[in-house]
Design a protein that fits this description.
single chain; mainly alpha; two-stranded antiparallel ribbon; 19 helices; globular
């Protein structure tokens, strides 16, 4: 308590809020090592506890779906077989308890949230810039042609590995940044030019990451959001013209990046000059089907500790030996949840998404567009299996619930 007072006094003298410092620390460490980000979460929790009061408990009802999900995860330990894995998974799920406790005790101001989001966007841009520059540097250093920049072995996994983030998870961050930036557009013409440039830059990087469904989801929701924003201040003719120009830019980016274009074609079948033939669409459906049949208890699931083992066994039974050998998870958060927590857990997961939806000017709410994005991308990745995924999504759900009592826009007035 005394240390907190001293820190508050120190940062007050610097005209900086300690709450803002901790919030920025969380955002900055999120794309970095899990241990760094875990420390930032722990600091936020420790800072929030002295602010606790009985009255604050009343605010927990705003996070009831998230808390129920955590409670049911705890209950599943009683019938999970691999208790060690169950406890390890529950530790990851603890953010569904920790973040509500943080948000009921720390009253982040709208200004703090704006500043923290701006720092997060700048940080994501720097990470994206670094990974692209490092890729180009590697090409030049090895004497290879820059024409290989967009080849698969310099995109997708390789591009993400430079900054230590799996592409679908980096896409979570870039897509969120893009939606926040779109929300800012329309308040200042000079700033709008800068925001638009950064949106195009992050869109290029996201497409270069080559994660297919996140790209589809981002293009869908960002186009919807931009169309809505343009239509507010333009006639139908101008709106149509500007939107067509935007679509031209998007499809130019999409088709100019070879690795991404090829990965989309691979879904339906593609023959490479080396003789390699890839048709990933049916393989993905087989993977989901095998994972779905891993569930042994439709209502309550197998328990959070047995999900991955059950999926591996099901892959083996269905002849997907490569997936079994590599111990692939379901690559679908809905199925991953269904196997571990059954229909009850799946309903709670869907409840997150519905409960966070804002019905107040829904087409102008940036969070609603990101929720649509999440609904889509959860089909392609088991995001709760990695720290960056479950932490960011849990934080976002709590942030949305917190801001429902405040203006939802993060744009400058």
């Amino acid at each position: 308590m005394r240390l907190q007072i001293q820190l508050d006094t120190f940062f007050t003298k610097l005209n900086i809020s300690f709450e803002l410092v901790l919030l920025c620390l969380f955002f900055i460490t999120l794309p970095l090592k899990n241990s760094y980000n875990s420390i930032s979460i722990l600091l936020l929790l420790l800072f929030s506890l002295p602010k606790f009061s009985k009255e604050n408990l009343n605010y927990l009802r705003n996070y009831k779906i998230i808390l129920l999900y955590f409670l049911f995860s705890c209950i599943s330990l009683f019938y999970t077989e691999d208790l060690d894995e169950g406890l390890n998974t529950l530790l990851g799920h603890s953010v569904f308890l920790v973040f509500p406790l943080i948000f009921i005790n720390i009253k982040f101001t709208k200004e703090h949230l704006k500043r923290a989001h701006n720092i997060f966007i700048i940080w994501i841009c720097l990470l994206a810039f670094y990974s692209e520059v490092f890729t180009v540097y590697n090409l030049l250093e090895s004497g290879k042609s820059l024409s290989l920049w967009f080849r698969k072995d310099f995109s997708y996994i390789t591009l993400g590995n430079i900054i230590g983030i799996h592409p679908p998870y980096m896409s979570l961050f870039t897509s969120y940044s893009i939606i926040v930036l779109i929300d800012k557009i329309g308040h200042n013409k000079l700033k709008d030019v800068g925001y638009s440039f950064v949106v195009i830059y992050l869109l290029f990087y996201t497409i270069h990451l080559s994660s297919r469904l996140p790209i589809v989801a981002l293009l869908l929701v960002s186009s919807m959001f931009i169309l809505k924003k343009i239509s507010l201040h333009n006639s139908v003719a101008k709106t149509t013209f500007k939107f067509l120009v935007l679509m031209g830019i998007i499809f130019t980016l999409l088709f100019s990046i070879r690795s991404t274009r090829y990965r989309f074609i691979e879904v339906f079948g593609m023959q490479y000059t080396s003789g390699l033939y890839i048709k990933s669409g049916p393989a993905k459906l087989d993977q989901w089907a095998a994972a779905f049949y891993a569930n042994n208890n439709k209502l309550f699931g197998n328990g959070i500790g047995d999900v991955n083992n059950s999926v591996t066994e099901s892959n083996m039974k269905h002849g997907l030996t490569k997936n079994a050998d590599r111990k692939y998870n379901a690559h679908n958060q809905y199925i991953q949840t269904y196997v571990g927590l059954g229909l009850v857990g799946l309903v709670l997961l869907l409840g997150f998404l519905f409960y966070c939806w804002s019905f107040n000017k829904p087409l102008l709410n940036p969070y609603n567009y990101y929720l649509i994005y999440l609904v889509i991308v959860l089909f392609s990745e088991s995001y709760f299996q990695r720290h960056q995924g479950i932490v960011f999504i849990a934080f976002l759900f709590c942030l949305i619930q917190f801001t429902k009592t405040q203006p939802t826009s993060l744009a400058n007035d």
